[in-house]
Amino acid sequence: MAAEETRLSEAFPMKAGAGPNSYAKNSTYQRGVADAAKELLTKAIAENLDTEILLSSNTFHIADLGCSVGPNTFYAVKNILESVQSKYQSKGPNSQIPEFQVFFNDHTTNDFNILFKSLPHNRHYHAAGVPGSFYGRIFPNASVHIVHSSYTNHWLSRVPKDVTDSNSPAWNKGRIHYLKSTDEVVRAYEDQFARDMECFLHVRSQEIVNGGLMVLTIPGRPDGTPHSHAAANVTYQLLGTCLIEMAKKGIVSEDKVDAFNIPIYYMSPKELEAAVEQNGCFSVEGMEILPYVSTLHSVAKTAPLIALHVRAATEGLFKLHFGDAILDELFDLYCKNLVAQHCIFKSTEVFNFFAVLKRKAN
Ligand code: SAH
After folding, report:
1. Residue 159 domain-assigned?
2. How far is residue 281 CA from its own chain's centroid?
3. Residue identifier of the C-alpha nearest atom 13 of ligand 1
4. Model-wide pTM > 0.90
């Protein structure tokens, strides 16, 4: 295996368990996105899944990358499975429906116990967990028919190295993300994204069978818009200012804030297309903007909900760096500032897109 395939990726899993701050309880927004993608998913499979693939194996392999702890992953898998089944059925009443094997992948630190405890009882597939970063190889060569991933590709494999190096021009002092940072910081994030996406496509091209599909739901920003247009980027900018506020009060050390950065990047569809073209192993069969899913709609009213969602997704990051003690205060302040500063979301957009890629024949 090449070195790039085995390189380690930093892991910041979603908040585990089923408590009030857990991802399982605070991922209804992502579920809304999955709802919006359902029709496109069905269409993508009906139109793009090669019938030869259906005949080539008795077992159909589906993988959900970055599955987290549920329940959204089960919903997505059910939709994929039903779409593949109807594709088989459309081949005639005698077509043999295969057995389905579903691989649930996430970082090794993901709470797989909770995930497996809540597996639907009436499922029509065999379930298996696949631990490890999707920036490395996680499946054998040409063994997966459909790869699905929702709300995961914005996570980089790591914080770009230079942004935490005080001797680098890309040192991100006083900020925790790239919005309103220097051009060097923005470039460091863009470069990290490009490297990660190259790696992601390379390893998937080895794992997906020829004619197999990769369907991705990605939070990002529209083509041709600046990073400041993505509402999600503004949420992290605001979180950064909360930390600075706490540093000024002496609750956290300024040095610690300077050394902390969020390994997330919001790409545009064009950036993904460019990476796919460069990789050369996939064709882009579809790229669609998903209908708007509210939450950031009226920030002042929905602030507590937004704060809970952001907390469930990023708490692990903050905990690792700053410890447990600041979490409640940080996210309370964040919620307060969301209400007080809701105007900063004025010219932003919540943007999610859906990409259908097909593994070309060699
Ligand atoms: N797909 C789910 C969860 C999205 S949350 C849904 O739609 O609700 C993002 C998930 O991606 C987290 O569980 C996180 O641990 C996982 N993730 C991020 N980077 C990853 C990586 N490199 N390898 C595997 N999983 C990753």
Report:
1. yes
2. 22
3. 68
4. yes
CA distances from 143 to 63, 102, 103, 204 (A): 10, 12, 11, 10
Is residue 326, in this structure, part of any structural domain at all?
no
pLDDT digit string, tens, across residues 30-64: 777 777 788 899 999 999 998 788 778 889 999 99
With the most atoms of ligand 1 within 8 angstroms of its CB, the residue from 103, 107, 108 to mutate is 107
pLDDT tens digit string along 255-297?
999 999 999 999 999 999 999 999 999 999 999 998 876 555 5
Identity of the amino acid at 214: M
Give the Å distance between the CA of 11 and the centre of ligand 1. Answer: 9
Q: Which of 41, 68, 193 to mutate to test the pocket of ligand 1 (most atoms within 8 A of CB)?
A: 68
Count of domains observed in the chain: 1
Please report, for the domain that includes residue 202, its CATH number: 3.40.50.150
Q: How far apart are CA 170 and CA 183, in angstroms?
A: 8
Is the minimum distance from the CB of 103 to ligand 1 under 6 angstroms?
no
pLDDT digits (tens, 9 = 90+) for 212-254: 999 999 999 999 999 999 999 999 999 999 999 999 999 999 9
Asked if residue 22 has its Cβ within 6 Å of ligand 1, the reply is no
Ligand 1 atom at minimum distance from 157 CA: 22
CA 236: distance to chain centroid?
16
| 106 ligand 1 Cβ < 6 A | yes
- Whether residue 355 lies inside any domain: the answer is yes
Q: Is 167 inside a domain boundary? A: yes
Domain span at 149: 2-225+262-293+349-359
- In the 8-state DSSP scheme, what is residue 49? S
